[in-house]
Amino acid sequence: MSCPRCAQGYILPDEPKGSIQPDFSGAYLAPNPDAETTTSDRAVIVLTDVFGLPLKNPKLIADTLAERLRCDVWVPDYFNGRPIFRLDDMEPPEREDDPMTIWDWLRVLWKTFLPNLGALWSNRSSVVDQRLASFIPLLKEKKGYKKIGAVGYCFGGSACIRLASTGLIDGGVICHPGPFSLTQVRAICTPVAWVCAERDEFFANSKQHESEAELAGRKGTDRFVDFEFKEYKGTVHGFACRPNLEKPEVVESYKSALDQTASWFEKTLVS
After folding, report:
1. Of 54, 96, 157, 184, which has the fewest beta carbons less than 10 angstroms from its beta carbon?
2. Mean pLDDT in each 10-residue stretch from start to end of the chain (271 residues)?
3. Rounded Cα distance, 229 and 194, in Å
4. Closest among 168, 172, 81 to 123, alpha carbons compared
């Protein structure tokens, strides 16, 4: 399921510098800038929102992280060429300062969700998780990575929560996730950072506090994993990948969320 914010946002300026890799299921690769002189045994994967690879934003995020972390950053096509939403479905954000109404939900249901019902079914959680369960070992086998981090946005945020319980990744960043359960949080066994919007229809403050309390309650036990939560004032669901470019304060929060992401991987992926 999607909320009205999932169909809203802006396309970031600039053009991606990386390339699509046919041998890796059509994933986008932002290469390590130092690849000609040094090698890195770590990598990061970016898990997109519902617009998938046709939206250039996750590719630009991958470029930025590759430059900052000096490692390869991948954006897998975990929708297998059929994103849940089409790029034409995206609209500029409206009434960001007001709560979503029932009419907002009905509108996105009628205009965006129902026409894309087939893509949603073909990309249900169990299918996407299986694609990632194949993609990550392929990266390790073919590229020799010893550590892999994952950052997910919206739909990808929910996928990152599930991925953080598999042992396939060594660090995760969860940005304003879509639907998930507290049971899935209890299963997390990987250090995770959370990028939280101030107003989020999917990740309300109460659920944020429950998730944080679950992870904090493990302190002093063998199930403890490092974690952090940061909330960005004046933001709504989607800001970390589709920021409102007409609001400088939101753009700054988008950049700060990228800084948080890079810092978390510098902490969790470096031995």
Report:
1. 54
2. 70 96 97 86 97 97 98 97 89 66 62 69 92 97 96 97 97 96 97 95 90 97 97 94 94 98 95 59
3. 5
4. 81
